[in-house]
Amino acid sequence: MSYIAGALGVCVAAFYYVTALRTQQETMKQTLETRQTQIFMELFKTFASKEFMQDLEELMLHWEFIDHTDFYRKYSSKVDPLQHAKFDFFLNYFDGIGILVERKLIDPDLVYFKMRYGLMAFWEKYEPVVAGDRLALKTPKLFSNFEYLYNQVKPLRESETSDRIIYPKDGVPL
Which residues form the domain of 129? Predict the structure, then answer.
């Protein structure tokens, strides 16, 4: 009888331990999701700002260049430091988001859902400039986190169809 009571006690303790562990994992998951949301919303505040959108529109619609050399002839920091700072800001902003995605601090689906057009169009337009900078500065990893981010969201765009509505993972439209 004492063996049965002991075995029953071990079973109850094991059940309690497993239940506590699952509760702890669920709490940690919720905390991580909350933190990811907080980080994303901080980034999105900048992304959705009037100044950000105006600067992005300027760089995407009004800056024209043929190649790396032509870009720097027109838009280098020697020509116009304030304008070139806008370009640097966008590279660093998206490079930082790339770091967060790579370290799994932000879900690439979330970034894609709200920032896809800006980040993808910017990379596609200015990738030749970055490639030229990498060669000129002998820094092959320059803005590699931005490139990583682009490569993470590109398959999401390719899997879309024009009539598909994108929903977050929980299936509820925003």
Answer: 33-158
**pTM (two decimals):** 0.74
In angstroms and rounded to an integer, the radius of gyration of the C-alpha atoms of the chain is: 24
In the predicted structure, residue 74 carries a pLDDT above the cut 70 = yes
| Nearest C-alpha neighbor of 38 from the set 106, 118, 133 | 106
The residue behind tokens 């370290």 is: 103
Using left for φ > 0, alpha for ψ between -120 and 50, and beta otherwise, residue 166 falls in beta
Assigned token pair, 34: 């909350």
Give the mean pLDDT of 87-106: 94
Whether 140 maps to a domain, the answer reads: yes
- Pure H helices in the chain: 2-47, 50-57, 68-75, 81-102, 108-137, 144-158
CB 72 within 8 A of CB 97: no
For residue 90, give the nearest of 44, 63, 117, 56 by alpha carbon.
56
Q: How many domains does the chain have?
A: 1
Residue 16 forms part of a structural domain: no
pLDDT score recorded for residue 40 = 80
Pairwise CA distance, residues 84 & 80, whole Å: 6
